[in-house]
Amino acid sequence: MTTKSAKVGSWSFERTSIAEEFDAHVRRHLPWYDLLSDKVADIAAGYLPANGALLDCGCSTADLAIRMQDVFKSRDASYVGVDVSEEMVEIATERLDSDEYRINFQLEAVDVFEELSRKPEAYDVIVANLFIMFLPPEDRRFFISKSVSALKRGGILIVVDRIEPEGGYLSSVLSRSTMADKMRAGTPLEEIAAKEVSLIGVQRPTNPNIYSGFKQFFQFGDFVGYVLENNY
Ligand SMILES: C[S@@+](CC[C@H](N)C(=O)[O-])C[C@H]1O[C@@H](n2cnc3c(N)ncnc32)[C@H](O)[C@@H]1O
User: Fold this and answer.
1) Partner of 155 for a Cys bridge, out of 1, 18, 146, 151, CB 3.0 to 4.6 A?
2) Can you tell me which atom of ligand 1 is nearest the CA of 85?
3) Which residue minimizes the CA distance to atom 18 of ligand 1?
4) Is the CB of 58 under 6 A from ligand 1?
5) d(CA 5, CA 216)
């Protein structure tokens, strides 16, 4: 991302420059991304049986497929990734098509609701990592209920989302600390500021009330990991 082009609310994943740079970008802005994504992958592995199926919602460059490649191979399980950004799906497809990764996969540039409406009780695991905060707020509860319908019994929905800060002085301290995290990761100050400005009205933290009934497995600042087991 060039900082000069950063404008209020201009952030979009549907740009080749953003998609090509995404893997490096996400690590500059969320320095704990790899640690968290390993946790998501381990939880997913705990619920993905032999011949099972995992849906990755807003898969971007299919990092999760690569992170879990040994699990997919040894269990002959399938990875389905959907992302509305054709640019992201193009990069993900190129990656997973390479001889290096031989997993059963399907990638599609579609809206997540299209995929969720197609197949009831199709998935053992549904992952929404850093995804729901980019959905319109009015669609978020619907996303959860459609995901539950798309899960097999015994399956799991794994969510990592940004939630609304609780307010007060602690929120100011935590938001400054987040800035310090990015600086410690070597992210240029101008890029940090430009990204924040570009996210106005594009990325909106979720009211955590929608996660009542979920179990929490992670929190770092405003970023929270939740799971919902489909036992019923
Ligand atoms: C922050 S990225 C997700 C990162 C990725 N899950 C990971 O683990 O690295 C959010 C992604 O969600 C996608 N997205 C946003 N709204 C979507 C929708 N309605 N349906 C499908 N994908 C969507 C964006 O194109 C973007 O690639």
Assistant:
1) 151
2) 25
3) 111
4) yes
5) 38
* Protein residue with its CA nearest to atom 13 in ligand 1: 58
Predicted TM-score of the model (pTM) = 0.95
Q: Does the beta carbon of 83 sit less than 6 angstroms from any atom of ligand 1?
A: yes
**Looking at domain 14-124+132-149, which of 3.40.50.150, 1.25.40.10, 1.10.10.10, 3.40.50.300 is its CATH number?**
3.40.50.150
Domain ranges in the chain are 14-124+132-149
Q: Is the CB of 82 under 6 A from ligand 1?
A: yes
Between the CA of 168 and the centroid of ligand 1 the distance, in Å, is 30
- Measured CA to CA, the distance from residue 163 to residue 39 in angstroms comes to 19
R_g of the chain computed on alpha carbons? 17
pLDDT tens for residues 122-172? 999 999 999 999 999 999 999 999 999 999 999 999 999 999 999 999 999
Is residue 19 classed exposed, middle or buried when 0-12, 13-18 and 19+ CB atoms within 10 A define those classes? buried
Cα 82 to Cα 110: distance, rounded to the nearest angstrom = 6
Answer yes or no: is the C-beta of 32 below 6 A from any ligand 1 atom: no
